[in-house]
Amino acid sequence: MSGLSGYRGPSAKILTEAGASIGDVLEVQTGGESIRGTLVPRYEHDDDGHIVIKLKNGYNVGIAVEKVSKVVRLEKGEAPKFVAPQKVASKGLPRVAILGTGGTIASRVDYRTGAVRPATTSEELYSLFPELSDVATITPEIVLSVYSENLEPGHWETISKRVSEVVAEGVSGIILTMGTDTMGYTAAALSFALKGLPVPLFIVGSQRSSDRPSSDAFLNLIGAATMAVEADFSGVYVVMHADSSDDRLTVHAGTRVRKNHTSARDAFESMGVEPVGYWSREGMQVTARAAPPPRGKTGSFAAKPKFDARAALVKFYPSMAAQYLGALFGSGLRGVVFEGTGLGHINSKNIEVVRKFVADGGVACMTSQCLWGRVDMNVYDTGRDLLQAGVVPLEDMLPETAVAKLMWALANSKSTEETKALMQENLAGEVTARTTQRR
Amino acid sequence: MSGLSGYRGPSAKILTEAGASIGDVLEVQTGGESIRGTLVPRYEHDDDGHIVIKLKNGYNVGIAVEKVSKVVRLEKGEAPKFVAPQKVASKGLPRVAILGTGGTIASRVDYRTGAVRPATTSEELYSLFPELSDVATITPEIVLSVYSENLEPGHWETISKRVSEVVAEGVSGIILTMGTDTMGYTAAALSFALKGLPVPLFIVGSQRSSDRPSSDAFLNLIGAATMAVEADFSGVYVVMHADSSDDRLTVHAGTRVRKNHTSARDAFESMGVEPVGYWSREGMQVTARAAPPPRGKTGSFAAKPKFDARAALVKFYPSMAAQYLGALFGSGLRGVVFEGTGLGHINSKNIEVVRKFVADGGVACMTSQCLWGRVDMNVYDTGRDLLQAGVVPLEDMLPETAVAKLMWALANSKSTEETKALMQENLAGEVTARTTQRR
Lengths: 439, 439
What we know:
Chain A is an alpha/beta fold. The first copy, chain A, folds into three domains: 9-75, SH3 type barrels (Roll); 95-286, L-asparaginase, N-terminal domain (Rossmann fold, 3-Layer(aba) Sandwich), CATH 3.40.50; 311-435, Rossmann fold (3-Layer(aba) Sandwich). Helices cover 24% and strands 23% of the residues of chain A. Chain A is built from ten helices and 21 strands. In chain A, the strands form five sheets. The first copy, chain A, has an eight-stranded mixed sheet, with helices on both faces. In chain A, strands 4-3-2-1-5 form a five-stranded antiparallel sheet, covered by helices on one side. In chain A, a hairpin with a 5-residue loop joins strand 3 (50-54) and strand 4. In chain A, helix 3 (153-169) packs across helix 4 (183-193). The longest helix of chain A has 17 residues, at 153-169. In chain A, 54% of the residues are buried. At the A-B interface, strand 18, helix 6 and helix 9 of A face strand 18, helix 6 and helix 9 of B.
């Protein structure tokens, strides 16, 4: 952890020149005034053009670097400590588990060290989000601590097993917090591993960290907690902002959701289907055509948590070389999901390589990089040739969902034929009926 | 070409049993009636549940296979011939070139052989689309005949060279017809190879073939032809349906367009920017913020048509193995475009492999699989590590545009440093200004 955590570029430069570190008391001089206070850390999301000072009255002020004429380090002052008010849940509320995997939601900043760390006790969580204590008895725990781009099928296994245990312990619902990068893949993976889950599991994250005024963390968390108690359905869902306002959430089916923006709060979208529902403080609304499964008996649930990472997602691009695909197939792969063009095509010169992969026991599946719409490999020669080579068409399954499913299917079948059959069976809403398809 | 072109499944079965071929005169018996006429070929798009018969009055009727009790082959009859009315362009109209590359637009069915073949003379084209003769003097020619999934950088070179020649010959504008699968990649590739093009080039295709009542072929073609004459701007654009109606087209910048549906007529969307404009029979409307370059002098234009196919597009997925990436890099690749997660990430365990690839002279670039929004590799550790490994961040460039650009940049630079510089320079609107970004 740097002494200037979160600062970079121009803001880091001016602070370094002043010999300032997080927690120091500074005087920041601008054209007309000088501002005194304690230097607080910034989030990695933040821009590099502001210095943020905590004033004596507790407010933070951001000062644009270009307006700063001088920074004077007054003292190695007593940095403000984060004091958690001792808040406990109202008695008799249903229990909800929050499983943390390393995202920035529900985290707190320690101003002394500048460290951002997740809340690990109910008390800390309630102190960050007091409203939660009126909703549920929350048990937060850290299951993993990993950036979402580093999540592996092995982590999905860990999460699935812990979910099973938590269900057996008795909860009204489960919240999984994670980074948003691979949230779509994880939601899909858990939809298969946790098929038959008797309670709802809501995956939430935040696109802006919880220390920022524009953070989406709180609404996502309070919405998920409320639904974990109140929803009359079960299954795996992603719950994130519905739009750029901070008052409405969308509930997405775990197998039909995709991150469609790098930074917007409403980055997640249901693909080819209406979302399962919406949530606001006024209540929850399940959409007309959505039919999420009802809550079930907790005693009979058993996860199928195993995954096999030897599957790849390969997006086709013009002139994709057979030698590249051959190299990939030669490296121990058991399955591949193609993101083909249009109705499900790759170039003809790769068909023989694919045929050989399938003949040797590999499982090759086809989705479309169009992302909306359905593959149809009967329309053109190339599609028919690929079908003949043994490629399994996956209807309108999302590519990201498909590779997670393939990793699961490879680990949960005894033969290649069984894997292929699993891939074509609609297990968790990953394929939509033609009649319900939107857009 | 099969004797039952376009028929498959149940319809092919019943016709085969009757010994029928395209062009034969049949009697098709259903419960209540019998229908006599000539068997006509079907398009590959069509369903497999209908037999289509051309009646003596010239109308085609489709008969559902499940209603057919019997098919009798009456005679190896004289199949109807396609007779082209001799239509010529009105005199004095500006010249527009149509370059065909193998899509289904502007094609005609020869009922005798069942072959679908593109119109190769002005007369044929005018006979298919008489309205065109009032708009421009059209010169159609077949530059390539290739499915769009089989298009290669070498084909982009062929097209670019031919465009240069056509410009030198003097045209008001150019229409390129192609299959829609890789239209986005091709539009991007040509945007770089044809930078400075003094006339507009409109890429059109059809999501439904021109023999079907629901075809989008005609409107796309007439709109492109009209704009090729009337538009006051130059450059490379995709022109396809704006919505599900058949009366409005969208003009997309060649570097910012993506096929976002497998089959819808309005599958193409401008990404992160407003479209350049819209066209309907009422006229053309250029959107407020669009500033397409004006037409230029034709004498000074020189294409840069070279491409190097040794570049790959790699979409990251959870647990992507370093050995897969290593195998890819070991197969002679000069450049790679990653489609990372979120702000531009791949898993940490691949960073060393990427670092080595770059150290050995490879060019590695980063885009986001979110498709909307902008990469920002300064926010998280993983991004910063990738930057340090030499990965070039590409702002909000589309992954498909980026790999086409990389193939072009590799062939048009003398050093790795020059390639990287080209990748980061905004040459053809492939990167948007932050202020204009939408969605």
